Amino acid sequence: MLTMNDLRQGATLVEGGDPWVVVESDVMKKAQRRPVMRTKIRNLRTGQVIHKTYKQGDSIPEADVTKSKAQFLYESNGLYTFMDQATYEQYALTREQIGEGAKFLQGEMGVDLISFGGSPVAVLLPVKVELKVVAAAPGIRGDSASNIMKEATLDGDLHVQVPLFIKEGDTVRIDTRTGEYVERVSLVSGSGSAGQPFSQR
Questions:
Q1: How many other C-beta atoms lie within 10 A of the C-beta of residue 28?
Q2: Domains along the chain?
Q3: pLDDT tens, 63-97?
């Protein structure tokens, strides 16, 4: 069982017989009242996102989920197919199950496949991924400032705010949890390891 204080980002719990993951959590304290935990949780089966408040003394069932290494293969008609790297079995998940993270999926990307009750229900993608800039407005000549941003289009038609010095053809690292630019990287750099489930913001 989980307590209120266990409900941090990434924790998994059971509500209504379904597995849910905590996307956001925040302790709210009021004068002369016990603190409560306000959360945003996402259903790992359906992708539904709800807000729910828990209080001290609540006993919350923990979702018994397992992780296995998998590889993203392809998307077709709204279904995303992954292959378990140990068994070579293939599983298809819906856009709703993948959540906002679907826009970061690339061919042969390694992910963690999340299963509940013996069936895959979600994936954890790398916390950071590297994408190529396919279009970007030119920066101001001689301006290398990193605190002034412009819009760039990345692989997969992803639009992100990047510093002025980023140009077409560069490879940039993006935080998949927030969709924000992190840094410019070299082409030989790795793409990281699987991390937290995607939040829907």
A1: 10
A2: 4-55 (2.30.30.30), 65-124 (2.40.50.140), 128-185 (2.40.50.140)
A3: 999 999 999 999 999 899 999 999 999 999 998 88
